[in-house]
Design brief:
Layout: E1 2-6, H1 21-24, E2 27-31, H2 39-46, E3 49-54, H3 63-66, E4 74-77, H4 87-92, E5 96-98, H5 107-119, H6 122-130, E6 146-150, H7 156-165, E7 169-173, H8 179-182, E8 188-189, H9 192-198, E9 201-204, H10 218-222, E10 229-232, H11 241-249, E11 255-258, E12 278-280, H12 289-307
Parallel strand pairs: 1-2, 1-3, 3-4, 4-5, 6-7, 6-9, 7-8, 9-10, 10-11, 11-12
């Protein structure tokens, strides 16, 4: 039987999230629960795979990797876009690339939860209670505070609405945001500098691109209030990570809540792990049971449709 390999199934839930019986009747299905960072090891592990299932952008598939996978015929990714896959190279190689449609919008929920947990010191207080302590920290409420949203789009807009429900004032900036576009959402468009100067909490909701890589620089962090917090649930490289570590270590800002990093999984010896004014999550903004049911259910559909010669949800460069 040909092989289907499911990559980066960290929680080992892919097979339980959908009915794979029709796929297993045609293929040998293998699940990789650890991340394979080494390219040579990845190629070796996937050498016999006719079908590969990629979870979002956890594992890159540039042209040089695809060229070393002669057995590959179908590459399925969760989501309808994946910047880590060279789709043009896959097409030249005769590999079909398919995706899955939306799975809800869990990211704004996680963002607001992360903001509250960060500012009110949930992690520290939980640890203290478990150790026999009681009330060691104090943090600000959200009502009356200013939220700065970088990127008032598909994710930034509902985050703004949720923040307003908590009584926050919301300002926003992105390279092309205008006052006319922000006003219907009850949001005030400001300059990038004013956003960093005025905000009590800054949250990032922009895709990673050449234009957004390193968008948040040391100079931006330097004008933040010492009582302000930075939250990033988008992509790690949007923020200058070294500059952020320095700002946190020197207590020039109050803290940071992060769900994304330059390198994922976050290295064990990374300095962010040892900074007490951080709240760190393992890139779970999109990870929900209902989301996985949608994604893996459609992964199964993609595989069966391709096998039948009628591929669905194909992606093009």
């Amino acid at each position: 039987m040909a092989t289907v390999t499911i990559l980066d199934d960290y929680q080992n839930v892919a097979l339980a999230s959908a009915d794979w019986s029709a796929v297993r009747a045609r293929y040998s299905v293998e699940v990789v629960t650890e991340h394979i960072a080494d390219e040579a090891s990845l190629v070796q592990r996937l050498a016999a795979s006719e079908v590969i299932v990629a979870m979002r952008e956890r594992t890159p598939f540039p042209a040089r990797v695809l060229a070393q996978l002669p057995a590959l015929r179908l590459l399925v990714t969760t989501g309808m876009g994946n910047a880590a896959i060279d789709i043009a190279a896959a097409t030249r190689q005769g590999v079909t690339v398919c995706g899955t449609t939306g799975s809800g919008n869990a990211m704004p929920e996680l963002t607001i939860g992360l903001i509250i947990a960060l500012t009110r010191n949930f992690a520290q207080e939980d640890a203290a209670v478990r150790a026999g302590g009681w009330q060691h920290t104090i943090g600000p409420g959200l009502a009356g505070a200013t939220l700065g949203v970088i990127g008032l789009g598909r994710l930034g807009t509902p985050v703004a609405a949720l923040a307003q429900a908590f009584g926050m004032s919301v300002i926003a900036w992105s390279p092309h945001l205008t006052a006319e576009r922000a006003q219907p959402h009850g949001v005030r468009a400001v300059s990038k500098r004013d956003l960093f100067v005025e905000s009590d909490v800054i949250t990032i909701h922009m895709p990673l691109s050449d234009a957004s890589r390193g968008l948040v620089r040391a100079a931006d962090l330097a004008v933040m209030k010492p009582t302000a917090y930075l939250v990033n649930t988008s992509r790690g490289p949007i923020v200058d990570e070294a500059a952020l570590v320095d700002a946190l270590r020197e207590r020039r800002i109050a803290g940071a809540g992060l769900d994304v990093y330059d390198t994922e999984p976050l290295p064990v010896d990374h300095p962010l792990r040892s900074l007490p004014n951080t709240l760190l999550l393992p890139h779970i903004g999109y990870v929900t049971t209902d989301g996985y049911r949608t994604w893996f259910g459609q992964v199964v559909e993609d595989i069966l449709a391709w096998t039948a010669g009628t591929p669905v949800r194909t992606l093009e460069a």
